[in-house]
TrEMBL record:
Family statement: Belongs to the LacAB/RpiB family.
Organism superkingdom: Bacteria
Keywords: Isomerase, Lactose metabolism
InterPro entries, per the entry: RpiB_LacA_LacB, RpiB_LacA_LacB_sf, SPI_LacAB/RpiB
Organism, as annotated: Lactobacillus panisapium
GO molecular-function terms, A-Z: isomerase activity
Protein's name in the database: RpiB/LacA/LacB family sugar-phosphate isomerase
Pfam families: LacAB_rpiB (PF02502)
Length: 175
């Protein structure tokens, strides 16, 4: 089964998105299931809308991971985190990308076109994608924090009826 991923950008990140899309498909073996920005103008002043759309794609289990490229990756991930079950963060280095996934089971990372170059972004993607969160080997503290995050989402956010999976809060076998 081919691995699936979502990708989006603003007008600033368009060129890098295209480069990383090629890397994801041809080097990492991913299928892109969400890529709404076809020309730079499609991404102009749309980060909130695109974050909402990518969050829904993940909630509906069309894919479980997403990448957004803009100037910094910050605004998009802040917006994505407003959605039930979504954990998103901007990352600037491979170690943070790796820990985002291994410690927090993050689904979306934001990358900054104005922060890092292409080779470094590829290293960040490798760190984020190559070691997925595994409930069997995850630290107990990470698993407890995910359950607390789920409780917070339940308390503070509305869970849409269309959410099609456990959003990585729990092991698929246990949910």
């Amino acid at each position: 089964m081919k691995k699936k991923i979502a990708i989006a950008c603003d007008d600033i990140g368009f060129t890098r998105k295209e480069e990383l899309k090629d890397y994801l498909v041809n080097t990492k073996g991913y299928e892109i299931v969400f890529d709404p920005v076809k020309v730079p103008q499609d991404g102009k002043n749309t980060y909130a809308k695109l974050a909402d759309e990518m969050a829904e794609v993940i909630q509906r289990d069309q894919c479980r991971l997403g990448i957004y490229i803009c100037g910094t990756g910050i605004g998009f991930t802040m917006q994505a985190n407003k959605h039930w079950g979504i954990r998103a963060t901007a990352v600037t280095n491979p170690y943070s990308a790796k820990r985002a996934r291994l410690s927090n089971n993050v689904q979306i990372i934001g990358l900054g076109m104005r922060v890092n170059g292409l080779p470094y972004h590829e290293m960040i993607l490798d760190a984020f994608l190559d070691e997925p969160f595994d409930f069997r080997t995850a630290r107990e503290n990470s698993k407890k924090n995910l359950l607390e995050a789920k409780a917070d989402d339940n308390r503070l956010l509305s869970k849409p009826d269309f959410v099609a999976w456990n959003m990585g809060f729990e092991d698929d076998c246990e949910a």
